[in-house]
Amino acid sequence: MKKLFKVTACACLAAVLLTSCVAKKKYLAATARADKEHADNMSLSKKLVDEYEYNKRLNGNINELNRRIGILRDSISGLEDNIAGLNKTVGGLNDRLSSLGSEKENTSRQLSKTKEQMDEQRKRLEQLQAMIDQQHKAAEELRKKIADALEGFNNSELTVTMKNGKVYISMQESLLFPSGSAEVNPKGKVALSKVATVLNAGKDINIDIEGHTDSLPIHTAKYADNWSLSTARATSIAHVLIDEYHVVPAKLIASGRSQYDPVATNQTPEGRAKNRRTEIILEPKLDELMQLLNNKPGE
Fold first, then answer.
1. Of the segments 74-78, 118-122, 231-235, which one has the largest average pLDDT value?
2. Which of 250, 168, 170 is nearest to 206 (CA)?
3. Is the Cβ–Cβ distance between 273 and 215 less than 8 Å?
């Protein structure tokens, strides 16, 4: 019995010891797994923290990049506005350049046209000057011929001068007419015959005969006033030249100026005597000159 009890007790003890060993192994294994899981959890937590910090930094970088992108977009927008403004300016400059090109072309054409007109005007002026010089030369030659023809008369009877390209033969009343008369006296006809000889030798001469009086009024049965007397004297001279010396009538113009074109004062007898005169005004014909003056450039 004691022996059985001992055996049973040993068996129980062995069972307890065996059970205790198994539990310890399981405990140790569980502890090891727990430690490993804890270590894994700590490692995972560390990774999570690292990932969080990385993501935080990444988000910060992304935000910074987004901020820079925003600034760049604003800059790009500003640059696009500037480019649009520059393109508009360039367009305006191109338009202005085109306009300036057209203006330059127009100006060049105008300058060319102006130069042509100036050349033409210069040519016409040279032609006019040549004709005027020719007319002055002809008038001077005519004056000399008249002066030579009338050299037998003194200055108190007549004068021969040139003024404004015309030859003036001024004959005093004492040479041509009795006082208050329009009938040419013999000595006056001698002078007119010498003038007619020169006039008939020259074809291209215009002849203007003007009668002049002093300011003393006249009223006779034949002449109502100085207008009548001055006109009658001019007409009488014209008739002598035409009828007696065969001057071509178409060359002559006769007119009276009365007292209104004096050459001296009418307050003295000497002055009035100078004013009582008949002027034969000779002018070489200017038909060619007048035609040139009346022609438009380019005709």
1. 231-235
2. 250
3. no
Least confidently predicted of 131-145, 227-241, 282-296: 282-296
Residue 184 tokens, joined: 């040419």
Residue 261 makes CB contacts below 8 A (sequence gap 6+) with: 210, 212
* Cα distance between residue 202 and residue 196, in whole Å: 10
Helix, strand or coil, per DSSP, at residue 283: strand
DSSP letter assigned to residue 242:
I
Query: Cα separation of 59 and 52, whole Å?
Result: 10
DSSP strands (E only) in the chain: 158-163, 166-172, 205-212, 252-256, 277-284
Question: Which amino acid is located at 257 in the chain?
Answer: R
DSSP class of 153: S
CA angle 262, 268, 273 (to 5 degrees): 55
> Are the C-beta atoms of residues 262 and 275 closer than 8 Å to each other?
yes
Q: Cβ atoms within 10 A of the Cβ of 175, count? A: 21
Looking at the DSSP assignment, which residues form a beta bridge with residue 207?
252, 282
Are 252 and 241 in contact by the 8 Å Cβ rule? The answer is yes
* Residue tagged 């008249």 (tokens): 146
Give the full edge-to-edge strand order of the sheet including 205-212. 158-163, 166-172, 277-284, 205-212, 252-256
Alpha-carbon distance of 291 to 267, in angstroms, equals 45
Of the two residues 276 and 55, the one the predictor is more confident about is 276
Question: 136-180 pLDDT, tens per residue?
Answer: 888 899 999 999 999 989 999 999 999 988 999 999 999 999 999
